[in-house]
# Entry
Amino acid sequence: MQDLRSLTHAELERFASETLGEPRFRADQLFQWIHAHGALDFGAMTNLSVALRERLAQVARLDTLVVDAVAESRDGTRKLRLLAHDGAAIESVLIPDEDKLTQCISSQVGCALDCRFCATAKLGFKRNLSPGEIVDQIYRARALLSEISPSRRVTNLVYMGMGEPLHNYENVVKSLRILNHDLGAKISLRRITVSTAGLVPAIEKLGTEDVRPNLAISLNATTDEVRGLVMPINKKWNIARLLQAVRAFPLERRRRITFEYVLLEGVNDSLEDAARLAQHLRGMPCKVNLIPWNPHPLSSYRRPTPLAVERFQNEVKRLGLPTYLRTPRGDDIDAACGQLAARAKR
Ligand code: SF4
# Structure
């Protein structure tokens, strides 16, 4: 049985004509029900005949995530634990910031990379999320918000939850097509960011897609020696190779690359690191998000003191890089990615 939530509009057109023997405009109706109106089952699709709805129930399904737990932080961050149809637990986090509400979504159950600061890495890799499971995180968050905070809407999406999005390349690109489609959620690609640990061939491929989101790079070190320790993927594609691919990534007007830099005390937070960071990124349309590490019991790193963070930020700014401090959010609710799922596992 085909999960229709996972199909792009073009795939749904093929399904309508080849499997249902229906005209292609049926795909418009189905797509709207699933992605604009948030239908949870075929019975809700009232402009389709009863016979067609019954036929759909025989040949297709609509997988929906179940909100299993919601943890709310003192700072307003909400973390959702969602269960897939096979019981796999994934996470999605809603992060309010003044008039913005950013949703951080997952692309895999667990992760095959082994970034040493990351709680998700400790889960190991279980499986890729389907396109439907990726986009349904947004629909479940919308449904939740409409109940508890009707005036708030998600304004930005970041693929920065559990998993390496570019390891699940095809499904992530399909999810972008679905979310961006005019008959669906109509989310502008300017409001979507895909964050990667640095899979160079996939970055290069993403640069050729017609659905191209904003790109964020999880950099986290300024020498290959340190990055290789913190993020073993650096041994495959080192900093120079990664930055070469990033510099070639096509950018629309006024768009820029985001570099995420998790600050780890005594590891990557020296003034020499600040100078190297500025040197690496010189001349690139970019900004740097500094993220003091969010401690969790699965790793022994330490968060730098506020003074050390300020010193690092001031130095990077002084050297000419737009730099923003992302204060750790939701410390009181295991908001570091993977922690809530890891707790469920424990
Ligand atoms: S930081 Fe991202 S890419 Fe690295 S292990 Fe964690 S989830 Fe995977």
Summary: Residues 342-346 have pLDDT under 50 and may be disordered. Residues 131-148 form the longest helix (18 residues). Residues 111, 113, 115, 118, 120-121, 162-164, 197, 337 surround iron/sulfur cluster (CB under 6 Å). The domain at 2-61 is CATH 1.10.150.530 (DNA polymerase; domain 1).
